[in-house]
Amino acid sequence: MIKISEEVQKALQNNLPVVALESTIISHGMPYPENVKTALRCEEIIRENHAIPATIAIIDGVITVGLSKTEIEKIALPEAVVMKVSRRDLPYAVSQKLNGALTVSATMIVSKLVGIRFFATGGIGGVHRNGELTMDISADLEELALTEVCVVCAGVKSILDIEKTLEYLETKGVPVIGYNTNKMPAFFTRESDFMAPLRLDTPEEVARFVKTKWDLGLQGGVLVCNPIPDEFSFPKVLIDEAIEKALIQMDILGIKGKEATPFLLKRIVEITKGKSLTANIELVYNNALVAAKIAARYFQKEE
Ligand code: PSU
Ligand code: MN
Asked: What is the CATH number of the domain that holds 164?
């Protein structure tokens, strides 16, 4: 059911750093052709920083670890039929031989299955606003509680309820690390109104933290929250305005469940006339960079 590219397989066998990349961001998170460009550039950034990239998706029912350029194109084209696959959907997409883009939760599962410990993404899912009523809480949070992968993201988008997302992660025992920041980053902006529960400042410190957690036999992942670089950070008022508009439209149209996140991202790009897309792309690059550095450090041989 799983096909691993030769390069990734070799790296894993030789205990070299590998960084996973998700595919929902390609198929459902960004428009074509920016999605392809971003996916390929992320791979380059990871290589430039001494790790091996492994973009993961389901291609005709086969869980594929280390997509080729052609495979990335295949799930990126606007006309491609690609299922958004979370934990619950994995067996469906595989047994029905579909094409599937993996969310953070599904990418963590596959990463662990094949022995990849680090994963770079844009943003994770979380507790949606009004989540206490709708119970729309992303499977990503539960996965972080269960699965031993270190996920580097740009924090929690304010289309979500940041405070409740942090509470949920605390209950589940998931460490949330502000990388070089005291504040919890909010994806498009460097800061939110909430403190990051923990702070670490270097790849070395994060690598040591992750190793300590797993050496202690503590189950589950680690969430590293890496703020968007200052020069690309979105003015908070502007992004908040766009988010509120998108949320109201979502309500009117009755969009919910797994369609919610892709709808909101797309509307925010439209409302901001593409500016939020630039921010999104840049923060993903920055996460690929940091994840590669942490992974390289984690696998560095002691002198
Ligand atoms: N946030 C983004 N871009 C994305 C996602 C989140 O900025 O593409 C995707 C990720 O794959 C994440 C998923 O795991 O959305 C969460 O979806 P849901 O809220 O339906 O659990
Ligand atoms: Mn959801």
From this structure: 3.40.1790.10
